[in-house]
Amino acid sequence: MTCYSGIYNNYPAINGNFPPQFPAIQRFPYRAATRTMRPMKNLLLISFFLLHCTLADAVTATPQDHAALRTAVATFVEQQTAGLPGKVAFNVNEIDKRIVLRACSKIEPFLPAGSQMIGNASIGVRCAEEKGWSIFIPVQIRITRDLLISARPLSHGQILHTEDLAIQTTETTQNAGLTDARQIIGKVLRYSVSAGYIMRADMLREPYSVKQGQSVRLSVQGGGFSLSSSGVALNNASEGETVQIRTLSGRLVSGIAGEEGVVQITP
Fold it and tell me: Each residue of 59-116: pLDDT tens digit?
């Protein structure tokens, strides 16, 4: 609603045009007192005008529908979790009824920096209009997956085989656990686990292709030449990792561990 100065005429008592039902006011005899009343009447008029505008704006302002915000968040979560393995279930929290936002026609859900679409998450919603706003709505995201677990107790340093694994359907709020046996078979356990333990990538490593104290063959290749020598490995290393070698002459060199005890040296 637009406020304008014409409303003064709707309040004759404030303008000094007092109606007949107020004779005592009309017959006020003192000129000095009349002068004193004028600033007060002006102040009352300004206060009433500001209050009138404020109330009009409050009445005409349309609040943002909370249900529309929750629907936007639910659609966003469905889109963002579509590629995750397993069955996704989630719950969008109710918004505190005391929160009143201006209605917006350009609502944009977003994932805050550092947040993940799993477990207890917080999804942001912003109003992409001038003088817009933003709000964060809590969401609980759960994933039901067929995870690989240890079929029996497994020991530190053990190379894993198919018979060491089993499948368990698990509801989780963490993006952890392996579902493809090819990610596990042939790998080595970093520590011992009991039966039923969910297998994770950080539990595994590649087998050592070079072991500490092992005799290795050094291969040096350059532009137009190829040399080979021998030495002793000073540390364990999986294929592709760096290994320190002591040559037969006592010199220390480093190279990249390869297959079958071969170490590639860069000239």
Answer: 446 899 999 999 999 999 999 998 887 899 999 999 999 999 999 999 999 999 988 8
Asked if 73 and 137 count as a contact pair (C-beta separation under 8 A), the reply is: yes
Identity of residue 87:
K
Domain count, the chain: 4
Q: What is the pTM for the complete model shown? A: 0.55
Burial of 51: CB neighbours in 10 Å, binned 0-12, 13-18, 19+: exposed
| Cβ atoms 122, 136 nearer than 8 A | yes
d(CA 73, CA 183): 34
CATH number of the structural domain spanning residue 227: 2.30.30.760
Query: Which residues are CB-neighbours of 171 under 8 A, at least 6 positions away?
Result: 142, 143, 144
Using DSSP's 3-state secondary structure scheme, residue 114 falls into: coil
Structure tokens at 155: 């020991």
Dihedral angle of Cα 118, 119, 121, 123, to the nearest 10 degrees: 40
Report the alpha-carbon distance of residue 199 to residue 192 in Å, rounded.
12
Give the tens place of pLDDT for each residue, 23-32.
444 444 445 4
- 10 lies in which domain range? 5-60
- Can you tell me which residue has the tokens 């009349």? 34
Angle at 224 between CA 223 and CA 227, to 5 degrees: 90
The domain spanning residue 175 has which CATH number? 3.90.1210.10
Cα 228 off chain centre by:
52
Instruction: Write b or e for each residue in 235-261: b if 16 or more Cβ atoms lie within 10 A of its Cβ, otherwise e.
Output: bbbeeeeebbbeeeeeeebebbbbeee
Q: Does residue 107 share a domain with residue 160?
A: no
SS3 143: strand
